[in-house]
Amino acid sequence: MKKILFAFIALLPFGGQAQNSAPAKPQAKPMVLTGATIHLGNGVVVENGLIAFDNGLITAVGPSSTAVNRTGADVIDLAGKHIFPGVIAMGSTIGIQEIASVRATLDFEEIGEINPHVRSLVAYSTDSEVTPTLRASGVLMAQSVPQGGLVSGSSSVFNTDGWNWEDAVLRKDDGIWLSWPSYLARSFNYDDFSFTTKKNEKRAETISLLESTFADAKAYSEIDKPEMTNIRLDAMKNLFTGKQNLYVRANYAKDIIDAVKFAKKMGVSKVVIVGGNEAAKVAPFLKENNVPVVLGALHSLPSRPDDDVYAVYELPAKLHKAGVKVALSYDDEWWRVRNLPYQAGTAAAFGDVSKEEALMFLTQNPAQIMGVDAMVGTLEKGKHATLIVTNGNMMDMRGNVVEHAFIKGAKVNLDNKQSRLYEKYKEKYGQE
Amino acid sequence: MRKLVWTWLSLLAVSTVGMAQQTFPRNGAYDERPGRYAFTNATIVADPQTTIAKGTLLIENGKIVDIGTNIKIPKGTVVTDLSGKFIYPSLIDLDSDYGMPEVKRASGGRRSGQQLESNKKGAYGWNQAVQPEMRAAELFVVDGKKATDFRKYGWGTLLVHPHDGIVRGTGALVTLDDESANKALLRDQASAHFSLDKGSSSQSYPSSVMGSVALLRQTYYDADWFAKGGKNAESNLSLASFNQIKTLPSFFDNSDKLGILRADNIGDEFGIQYIIKSGGDEYQRIGEVKATGASLLVPLNFPAAPDVEDPWDADIISLAELKSWEMAPSNPAALVKAGIPFALTADGLKNKGDFWTNLRKAIEFGLSKEKALEAITLAPARLARADDMLGSLKKGKLANFLITSSDLFDEDNLIHENWIQGKKFIINDLNAADLRGEYKLTVGSNSALRMRVTGKANKPEYQITQDTLKLGPKVTLNGEQVTVTYQPDKKKPGTVRLSGYINGRDIQGQGTLPDGAPVEWSATLDTTRATSSSDTVKAGRPTPKQPTFSDMGKLLYPFVGFGNEEMPKSETILIKNATVWTNEADGVVTNTDVLVQKGKIAKIGKNLSASGAREIDGTGKHLTNGIIDEHSHIALFSVNEGGQTSSAEVRQSDVINSEDINIYRQLAGGVTTSQLLHGSANSIGGQSAVIKLKWGAAPAELWIPEAKYIKFALGENVKQSNWGDAARSRFPQTRMGVEQVFYDHFIRAREYDKAMKAYNNSRNKNNVTPPRRDLELDALAEILNNERFITCHSYVQSEINMLLSVADSLDFKVNTFTHILEGYKVADKMAKHGAGGSTFSDWWAYKMEVKEAIPYNAALMAREGVVVAINSDDAEMARRLNQEAAKTMTFGGMSEQEAWKMVTLNPAKLLHLDNRLGSIKTGKDADLVLWNDHPLSIYARPDYTMIEGTIYFDYKADQEKQERIAKEKARIVQKALSAKSKGAETKKPEGRSSKLLQCDDIIGVHAEEIK
């Protein structure tokens, strides 16, 4: 009885209120946006630019003088505005986490250590009330990632609009996520409320478990029709063909090196480091091995008391300068991802990269890492018209008012639960 | 069998001593002896200042009868000639649990359930951790094995108490005699003992250091009330005992430098000067420690050298750890230099022998031998008020002394005998042969052998050589008897066995060859080769060059990498040509100069000049007030006292951690003032500490005591919704209950306040029992009297409404609602009540009660007339509060200046500090930030952050600090490497970081995910 009651209570708030607005309808007629400053997402800016798209795809982008067929098109003058590619949020729990303290709303962590077969794809909820708030801050694509265990599962990439996961998904099962056993382990001291970090004694044991799992998976992938099906191993086979990424969560320099070497030894061709606190120490190694890094929340404290107070803020630029491909993420967060654009701002403020270079950390680079760069990530002819129009520089709070958003050419409703409540209470108080 | 032997030995001991317990019956004939001994021709170090050459010590019946030269030795005295030997008073340790029962700590963790009442039987006090009735003398047993270990290293007397609880009762002064508790006990109720550690108490309260402080303070007040008539109202054995122990020497257990200041504060309130156990790190805050006037009990457990061979692994070791390894041995010398009285203790050492190693190290680091001796003999005797019988060798004092081979602090010194209450304990036989030297060894016809004896006198090392061939012998020395075995030919089995005795300086005897043939042998000291014994020792083992005082790095304030070598000072500063955000009617003014003098804003205008001022060019830069964080938990040792539903009595000011690196990091984000709030574990939390982030200053200098605030909380945290099944017993568990908590407490506070005022105003206080002072109700009465102000953690509109109506009906004000994520729903009511709102810019979705939180909250409230601040509750976000304020422009369209006020002037108003903080106005505190860009921009960071005209963060100096940290680390790493190569014990790399505390932190582990 208690359980049933609980489930009922948990459902209530989502049952009784206004639902998310309907997903955008597919683009019906050509659009031409003119006069705005267009940030292409690959480091290039076009002042007083023009962008045209039809059937969801970009047909032209360039200065406003660019010749395009305007017949039957909606032409919108956006002088003074800015156009950016839709922001891509990697490594998130968007769509699979709703209210952190309510277990019934959490779908990102399975039990068990080796779960390559579990997929965020099927749990991704297009009815999350969080997702529309992210769109309103420019986040138009999200990678939704299973958490926990050693091999957490398989991620997928979504547009942040859609009726269900099947039509929201941009790329299914783009990679398998592995938590690399850390070289150093942290433990809590009750005596003085502090943490102690020291060598992880169980590391070798864990690595050997991973080695046998990956070796078995590789061997399994070589058989056409196995006598006995193993859905775990089956889920890993694309790691060995290069069709899927292996995302490895690793922060310490030694872990990064070991993790990359492990992947190579196991025959995994595409490996991505996630977290990468100490990636700067091994930047030449990462460059040499062509391994990109998805950094965790930039808005976090340095891990050690003697670290440069701005160490975390400076890291993306350092890696970029050293020739390592960098994407920014907000760790395994969901609602906070709406602040992701500001992390690019921070990267430019504290590091030796331009604002446009920092923008690449949210657009071109994540698209390339996840293998969706043929479709999205930059504003180029032939790619999806997935973009936002803002009042200013979206990487700064003062310019992040998103006025329009298009996902594959479809004009997205920017309304969300929070803006609705805002309107409701403005009405209550008679505020303008 | 082993047990039997032991019993027999101890029985034997009983019979040798005079003055055994007269009341005890004897098994067999009486064997009382006079115990009259004289020691002659010794170098007697009677006390640190007095050394008697060729002196005599005469003792009888366990006491010193006479000491000096030309002493007449009465007949019937056992005389020992101690030519060449030394006599010292034996060591005293004041912090021991010798002979005490083992303390079993209650298992921690919030999953263990809650225990709201004491489970101690008998008519004792309400809290299990307050045990003034505990009496070490009643618990004391002689522990033969431990006593042997103590005696071996020279201790004679210990002050023992069970290390358990906040009030630990009385200590017992005992000797290390091994017979019976009756003999060993010198003084019952010799001392009183206190701490802030609840020990084995399984009771939920207190669960924090500040809760412990409050409980101890309350106990003093309760005991006072009890004495003044409360005893007629209730029986309370604990309070009765407490009143008896108050006058004893009071020892306070503690483990760090800031804890000394904390303990001393408590003592000051009650006119008690505690003797405080230190952490050995007081050299890092020596000025403040000195100012307490406290005497200290100082441990000698110096950190082991860090293992830094792998540079990446060693990166986790902080500079502070490296420096404390380097500097800890200088602590005793620093105490002497500062004139702080102290006694040394072996407490905390794994091996007692390390005491001597470390004491010698402390001497190398500048501690004089006289002061060292004082700190282990006379100083502890004085602190225990037992210098009438202990601590030096003087007529009438106890015959507790050591006979040593040389100067007590020499590395080669041997303690021969440790006499306790006139009874001899042999440590290293006084008459043991010192065989060290080189011998011609003749075994039968073989006279080509040589024997070398090196090492320590009590641990000789032997070597037999034939030409260059080494024949490692086995040698046993038993009194005068010597046994030697060796194998003459390594390739052939066969051992020569020799038995012999010492004859003068030579050895001779008989033995058996491998074939069974008997043989004569002798070893003759080769006086031509043998040099003095100490030379041989040194030749055998080179002593590594120790680090010394002179090549240490500088102290840092605070003692962390980014600390200051010199404390920054208040300056006269002229900022020229900046864009100034005044937060006053002038708004933002460009090309303006601001002059700072004597910590205040002296002038604002164009083309200002001031002689002697440090000029800072503000061209292209923005000058603003320092950011004020209304809701912070940095710089605290603990946040929540969650043991009870109201903890109004606890004070965050008791747990300010001035050494927290987050102070510096937040200066680097433009923050200058923070309200350190209690957490939200209970409906009525604790008293806030508002601090200025004066990096390097001690806790008392950070604190603004006149800002009197208290934390309240509503909703899921106080009803323990997300704490699992263990937390289902404490009232309240619903929002219905929360309301009643407030009613109940405020009604009681009103009655209490009335009773207090009536008593204070009454003319005749004689024969009237005063009302019991209650620290919890004091704080609530202050709220009713408008002297203390509420900051209430709150989320949903129903509970906000509830507290407003409780407050209105009981006639008090809610000053600030913090978090207040649904404040936008009741902004009109808040404005009417006059309550402010201090909120997050955009947090939501982390729990049920924030599912309707919106980032437009601040704007909606502000437009309804609520004073709105944006706060952090998070050490990371706090350094970006300028950006958080900017979000109110994105969400809700606030103007730039209104947005900026939300992290400066508005929180100043909420803290009632806007008369001195929050705007750039002549006469206000010069708490200023010069930004390199528009302060609401993501691209802005401070060039300078100053507080009261003192620059605490300087972007350029910060870069220099980073270089200094790197260099200093490199220097000490090289030192540590060389220590390791010379055989020093090392410790694997370990990083330590303090936990980032937030609202929900009770036990620490769980709350990182939930605000």
UniProtKB/TrEMBL annotation, chain A:
<dbReference type="InterPro" id="IPR032466">
    <property type="entry name" value="Metal_Hydrolase"/>
</dbReference>
<dbReference type="Pfam" id="PF01979">
    <property type="entry name" value="Amidohydro_1"/>
</dbReference>
<feature type="domain" description="Amidohydrolase-related">
    <location>
        <begin position="317"/>
        <end position="409"/>
    </location>
</feature>
<dbReference type="InterPro" id="IPR011059">
    <property type="entry name" value="Metal-dep_hydrolase_composite"/>
</dbReference>
<dbReference type="InterPro" id="IPR051781">
    <property type="entry name" value="Metallo-dep_Hydrolase"/>
</dbReference>
<dbReference type="InterPro" id="IPR006680">
    <property type="entry name" value="Amidohydro-rel"/>
</dbReference>
<keyword id="KW-0732">Signal</keyword>
<dbReference type="GO" id="GO:0016810">
    <property type="term" value="F:hydrolase activity, acting on carbon-nitrogen (but not peptide) bonds"/>
</dbReference>
<feature type="signal peptide">
    <location>
        <begin position="1"/>
        <end position="18"/>
    </location>
</feature>
<protein>
    <submittedName>
        <fullName>Imidazolonepropionase</fullName>
    </submittedName>
</protein>
